[in-house]
Amino acid sequence: MSLLERLNEDMKQAMRNKEKDKLTVIRMIKASLQNEAIKEGKDLTEDQELTVLSREVKQRKDSLHEFDKAGREDLVEKIRTELQYVELYMPEQLSDEEVSAIVKQTIADTGATSKAEMGKVMSAIMPKLKGKADGALINKLVQQHLS
């Protein structure tokens, strides 16, 4: 089942169950996917869909951070709920240990030895971990292992 088919089924179910918040989030995800497809001029690949979902998660995490910093608890709860719904469509996230092992392996594969070669490592590792781990975590681990 493709992501759009799954979203459509979940949207119908959310309507039946009168889950207003979930329905809103699903509609936002669908709109983002459709906008990206229009921009590309063709149907999206799974990789492109994952990119859009990752962008949605990142936007919500950034909003969560900002609202939390501003002390807006009402909005923090709303964004947390949205984030939970968006993450339902993301691939299963890898643990910190699994990410660390992949980072070490990629550093060994690329032969990087200093932080100056971080770009080389990041460009090699991001396709492997796309959507499966947070980019900030990957960046932090690469820096740690290269220092």
Automatic annotation (TrEMBL):
<protein>
    <recommendedName>
        <fullName>GatB/YqeY domain-containing protein</fullName>
    </recommendedName>
</protein>
<dbReference type="InterPro" id="IPR023168">
    <property type="entry name" value="GatB_Yqey_C_2"/>
</dbReference>
<dbReference type="InterPro" id="IPR019004">
    <property type="entry name" value="YqeY/Aim41"/>
</dbReference>
<dbReference type="InterPro" id="IPR003789">
    <property type="entry name" value="Asn/Gln_tRNA_amidoTrase-B-like"/>
</dbReference>
<dbReference type="GO" id="GO:0016884">
    <property type="term" value="F:carbon-nitrogen ligase activity, with glutamine as amido-N-donor"/>
</dbReference>
<dbReference type="InterPro" id="IPR042184">
    <property type="entry name" value="YqeY/Aim41_N"/>
</dbReference>
<dbReference type="Pfam" id="PF09424">
    <property type="entry name" value="YqeY"/>
</dbReference>
